[in-house]
Fold this protein.
Amino acid sequence: MRPFHYREGILRADEVPLDQVAARFGTPVYVYSEMAIHERYTAFSHALGPETLLCYAVKASSNLHLLSCLAHWGAGFDIVSGGELARVLRAGGDPQRIVFSGVGKSREEIAAALNAGIFCLNVESEAELERVDTIASELGCRAPVALRVNPDVEPGTHRYIATGLRESKFGIPMAQAENLYLAAERWPAIDFRGIACHIGSQLTDLAPIAEAARKVRGLYERLSKAGMAISHLDLGGGVGIRYHDEQVPTPADYAAVLHDALTGLPVRLVVELGRSIVGNAGVLLTRVEYLKDNEGKKFCIVDAAMNDLLRPSLYGAWHDILPVQEAELPAETGTLDVVGPICESGDFFARGRLLAAKAGDLLAILGAGAYGFAMASQYNSRLRPPEVLIRGNEARLIRRRETLADLLAPEENPG
Ligand SMILES: *Cc1c(COP(=O)(O)O)cnc(C)c1O
């Protein structure tokens, strides 16, 4: 069953009517289905097989309670900051299943990761390699490292989330990475264990992922010939989801492409999936404040805004919007812009959308489970919304709504 569906004219998350969630917790509010996250996690985990280390990319949605569900199901984690490391450890994640990505790891972050005993640091430059080597030798340990290579493939996604192109800041060009591996003795405190790559996000075509995997395989084989023992290949994440009418890969298609590309290699596969695990398991529930008609241009002003869900403003992303109370679609002339209260013309959720809405109605913005709350800010001094987790017929608050005291405290008590 789809996690968000109508029954008796009311949109529900699993068993729970969303009007009841709004009545209990107020709006705007993020609502996630634990069952939907579990279904996606287990679908990928079964397709990839027990030998694969499936790391959940924490930046997609980082609530402690979601992380603790994933840790409980056996997930590993892909982190990009010391803050995310702290979250995963607090949620009970296994350090031996953590990979740490990112181009700008600070000294403190590297030391914290080494002290925690994580599985691997994905290093993105020679300068970072030097820094990791120095810190590991100060701590008297050897740092488990994969170089994140930049395979220079066109992922066919939004420019802001394409990460494996020559001109992007991510990774190390293949030839340069090869030279670093071959000069391994220059960094005595580095234990070169793997090769990593991640070419972008919201990929709807598997061909670029296959091409990147083939390039990584080529590098593995050259290093192997040179006598270097690499034990894992981390092929990143980026599997796309359906926001609108996209055709997207199934977990089985994805797993088949990776397994094909790595056939016969004695290595462990690592993946880093975010959006495809949680993206369609969450909605942002919002209430219509006003309707407004500017000389024929109709606006539906809701109580959520770009500070709560940035994707439409940042990427021009499409999100389906459904009325919580099932309603007939208006005639074609009835298109509206769904906008928030923020003082920016870029503050919108939909433009020219066919939608039945009147003041006081509840709307659900779908596909808000990934890069939703995680990107929320207090812009315009708005309080960040609460998060609610649905388990069967139970709705549980997993992050409270911020208060005016939360907003003002760091300035009233600057320390
Ligand atoms: C963001 C990111 C991911 C996850 O991407 P999704 O599209 O959410 O699967 C994985 N690896 C790295 C290095 C990332 O930066």
